[in-house]
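User: Just a sanity check before I run the rest of the batch. Below are the structure tokens for the first item. I only need the designed sequence back.
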């Protein structure tokens, strides 16, 4: 009996010990002040703070689509003035960057030997004129004598032949004189167009030959953009199609132009098509040789736009993180066209104008997390 009573007693103590242990654990969990334990997930609800660069406000604006292009600007009207005669350059009256008017003297080439040739040609013309005058008088006198029967008809034919020969000599002398005068005119170099001097490879004292470049003049009032476009976009490349581009040196400034003509063949290596874009430059901002990038506008309309960094397209369907009531909310969206030039995407449905979206690294925030934006307000899409 003693042994049985011990086993029962032992079992009782074990039963009593379990409630005591549970009470101890509850007290430990409540802490020293007896407060209830924090609910599960409280650590994730602590919230995060992000800067204004990590959010963007959805706005409606113009979105453009079309093939991208890149190329260089050059002058639509350009003239390289070359020497027409051999000789030493006496002077060059213009400098690079200087404006000139059509017909203005820009250089002179030495022409001393031509002065002697000019005097000789002028003397030959006077002599031929005198010879012709004498021959014509002699022909008239012979005609009168033949009419009176004093001379034979043959004498009149000889006189008329002499007149024809004198006329030919006079014409030859005048042609030589005109040639010498043309050479003298070539010694004085004038501007063929109005514009700005873009190059002057010669200086006074240089010896030139026919064809040597002297001065290059460009007309900056109208520029030409010679650009390359992928041949896959050939259907969008029609004369008159609008073009919008930017150039280095004018950041944030866009220029509007239109396609003037297309090259008749594509590049055999790159398979790109060259287009020539007429660019009005009435304000003279653009400079030949600048690199330009832009697009041929095949479609332009108003749409909701967001930066491509604000949309997650890695899954089966795209989504964005919208900031609503201070918390991150995952919202599926339907996308439209993508503007590769500005790295923006059209949103067809899912968000509305004025919604604030997280962008960039902030897309890693867990949906439902409280989000605080520090600093300035969310920037709208530009």
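Assistant: Here's the designed sequence for the first item:
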């Amino acid at each position: 009996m003693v042994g049985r009573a011990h086993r029962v007693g032992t079992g009782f103590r074990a039963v009593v010990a379990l409630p005591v242990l549970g009470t101890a654990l509850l007290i430990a969990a409540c802490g020293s002040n007896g407060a209830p334990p924090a609910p599960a997930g409280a650590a994730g609800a602590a919230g995060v703070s992000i800067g204004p660069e990590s959010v963007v406000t959805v706005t409606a604006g113009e979105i453009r689509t079309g093939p991208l292009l890149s190329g260089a600007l050059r002058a639509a009207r350009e003239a390289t003035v070359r020497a027409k005669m051999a000789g030493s350059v006496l002077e060059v009256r213009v400098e690079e960057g200087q404006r000139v008017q059509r017909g203005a003297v820009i250089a002179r080439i030495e022409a001393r030997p031509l002065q002697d040739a000019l005097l000789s040609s002028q003397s030959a013309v006077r002599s031929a004129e005198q010879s012709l005058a004498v021959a014509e008088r002699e022909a008239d006198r012979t005609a009168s004598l033949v009419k009176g029967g004093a001379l034979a008809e043959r004498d009149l034919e000889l006189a008329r032949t002499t007149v024809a020969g004198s006329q030919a000599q006079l014409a030859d002398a005048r042609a030589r004189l005109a040639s010498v005068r043309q050479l003298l005119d070539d010694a004085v170099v004038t501007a063929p167009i109005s514009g700005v001097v873009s190059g002057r490879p010669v200086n006074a004292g240089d010896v030139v030959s026919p064809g040597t470049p002297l001065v290059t003049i460009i007309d900056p009032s109208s520029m030409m953009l010679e650009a390359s476009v992928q041949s896959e976009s050939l259907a969008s490349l029609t004369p008159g199609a609008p073009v919008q581009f930017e150039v280095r040196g004018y950041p944030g400034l866009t220029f509007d132009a239109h396609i003037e003509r297309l090259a008749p063949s594509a590049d055999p290596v790159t398979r790109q098509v060259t287009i020539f874009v007429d660019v009005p430059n009435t304000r003279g901002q653009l400079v030949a040789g600048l690199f330009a990038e832009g697009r041929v506008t095949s479609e332009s309309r108003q749409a909701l736009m967001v930066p491509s960094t604000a949309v997650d397209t890695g899954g089966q369907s795209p989504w964005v993180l919208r900031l609503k009531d201070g918390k991150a909310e995952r919202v599926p969206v339907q996308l439209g066209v993508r503007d590769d030039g500005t790295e923006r995407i059209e949103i067809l449905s899912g968000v509305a104008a004025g919604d604030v979206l997280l962008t960039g690294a902030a897309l890693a925030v867990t949906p439902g997390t409280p989000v605080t934006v520090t600093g300035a307000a969310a920037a709208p899409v530009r």
